[in-house]
């Protein structure tokens, strides 16, 4: 199976990215032909400083490698190293009805939050469809927020196939329901754009500070609490082992566990979970030339795969 996914270099990666997407990337690299990329063309819709963008791209590659993506198993590449992507985006755009993009929630959300409605933001899902279709992806691991983008991708592919014959393979989203939406410190979906993240590579002291800010109700220590509605518990259950989770769950229901204790436990668990990755991250960061090598080799592989599909598409629609 061809597995493919992308992540935007628009800020530090957070634990929502990890549980919602990256952990699945790591698992799926084992028995599949996996392609993962840093979506810098997409990030241009929000990052407008070239130095900052280059820095984020480097950081995301280093983060993914430190977390366990293995360049001998997976192709970890940068979107703009394969400029064929933008050509396919144009070919797809010619069969994409305006209405599909007008109803895209990510575009509507961004506009509501006051971001300028550039054409790039509007056409974002078409570029994403190009990313996926250009590699004949079968499976696309993502968080719940990307579900609609995947539906639009399939719709565009079906429409293209209907007009030009059987050109594209139809990809399927891979969304793990248990981690589909990881809450942030304010209880909303954790997101780089909401300033509510706990970042994977935050220092332990910062993790402690951020966990202290996690919003809870004001139920006193002795009172019974409902774990299902508590953000702290939700976050804790992502990290802790099953024995600890059921102990904490019991103490929630019986009463006797306070939010202060939970915050401390959570901060310790998060820091411990990423301790090894933090060390590996420092090693990669100290060797930018190794990152450059990984990037160049992956770009070659990705470009070869992309070229074959793009030729097929150009041929089907009569250009070139
Ligand atoms: P952000 O929303 O912080 O900008 P991205 O859009 O770069 O994150 O998302 C990268 C991947 O991480 C996507 O597959 C996305 O669905 C997933 N993801 C992001 N935030 C969450 C979250 N809070 N819970 C689960 N998955 C998430
Ligand atoms: N839009 C995705 C996000 O914000 C990132 C992305 C770009 C992507 N292209 C992709 C994800 C292709 C999966 C497949 O998270």
Give structural notes.
The structure is a single chain. Strands 1-2-3 form a 3-stranded parallel sheet. It is globular and about 70 Å long. 56% of the residues lie in helices and 7% in strands. With 320 residues, it is mainly alpha-helical. The two termini are 30 Å apart. It has helices at 15-28, 40-43, 50-67, 84-93, 98-102, 105-112, 119-122, 124-133, 147-164, 204-212, 231-239, 242-254, 259-273, 275-286, 288-317; strands at 2-7, 33-38, 74-78, 139-141, 172-174. It folds into 2 domains: 2-180 and 288-317, Rossmann fold (3-Layer(aba) Sandwich), CATH 3.40.50; 202-273, Tyrosyl-Transfer RNA Synthetase, CATH 1.10.240.10. The protein contains 15 helices and 5 strands. The structure holds adenosine-5'-diphosphate and tryptophan. Tryptophan binds next to β1 and α8.
Strand order of the largest sheet: 1-2-3
- Proportion of residues in helical segments: 55-70%
Largest sheet: 3 strands, parallel
Q: Helical element count? A: 15
β-strand amount: 5-15%
Order of helices and strands: EHEHHEHHHHHEHEHHHHHH
Low-confidence stretches: none
- Annotated CATH homologous superfamily of the largest domain: HUPs
What features would you highlight for this structure?
three-stranded parallel sheet; 7% strand; 320 residues; single chain; Tyrosyl-Transfer RNA Synthetase; binds adenosine-5'-diphosphate; mainly alpha; 56% helix; globular; Rossmann fold; binds tryptophan
What is the gist of this entry?
This protein has 320 residues and is mostly helical.
Task: Explain the layout of strands and helices.
Elements: E1 2-7, H1 15-28, E2 33-38, H2 40-43, H3 50-67, E3 74-78, H4 84-93, H5 98-102, H6 105-112, H7 119-122, H8 124-133, E4 139-141, H9 147-164, E5 172-174, H10 204-212, H11 231-239, H12 242-254, H13 259-273, H14 275-286, H15 288-317
Helix pairs in contact: 3-14, 4-8, 4-15, 8-9, 10-13, 11-13
The site of adenosine-5'-diphosphate has 18 residues, from helix 1.
């Amino acid at each position: 199976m061809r597995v493919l996914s992308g992540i935007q270099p628009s800020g530090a990666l957070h634990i929502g990215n990890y549980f919602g997407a990256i952990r699945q990337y790591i698992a799926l690299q084992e028995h599949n032909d996996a392609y993962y990329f840093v979506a810098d063309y997409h990030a241009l819709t929000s990052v407008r400083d070239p130095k900052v963008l280059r820095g984020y791209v480097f950081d995301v590659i280093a983060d993914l490698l430190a977390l366990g993506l293995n360049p001998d198993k997976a192709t970890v590449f940068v979107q703009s190293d394969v400029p064929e992507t933008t050509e396919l985006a144009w070919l797809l755009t010619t069969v994409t009805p305006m209405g599909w993009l007008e109803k895209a929630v990510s575009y509507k959300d961004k506009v509501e939050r006051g971001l300028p409605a550039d054409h790039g933001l509007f056409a974002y899902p078409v570029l994403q469809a190009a990313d996926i279709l250009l590699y004949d992806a079968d499976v696309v691991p993502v968080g719940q927020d990307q579900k609609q983008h995947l539906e639009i991708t399939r719709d565009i592919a079906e429409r293209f196939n209907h007009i030009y014959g059987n050109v594209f393979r139809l990809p399927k989203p891979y969304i793990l329901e248990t981690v589909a939406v990881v809450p942030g410190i304010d209880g909303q979906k954790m997101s780089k754009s909401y300033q509510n993240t706990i970042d994977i590579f935050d220092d332990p002291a910062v993790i402690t500070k951020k966990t202290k800010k996690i919003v809870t109700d004001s139920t006193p220590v002795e009172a019974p609490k409902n774990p299902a509605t508590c953000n702290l518990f939700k976050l804790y259950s992502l990290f802790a082992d099953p024995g600890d989770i059921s102990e904490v769950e019991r103490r929630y229901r019986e009463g006797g566990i306070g939010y202060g204790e939970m915050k401390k436990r959570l901060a310790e668990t998060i820091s411990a979970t990423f301790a090894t990755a933090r060390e590996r991250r420092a090693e990669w960061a100290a060797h930018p030339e190794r990152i450059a090598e990984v990037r160049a080799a992956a770009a070659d592989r990705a470009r070869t795969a992309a070229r074959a599909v793009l030729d097929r598409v150009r041929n089907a629609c009569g250009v070139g």
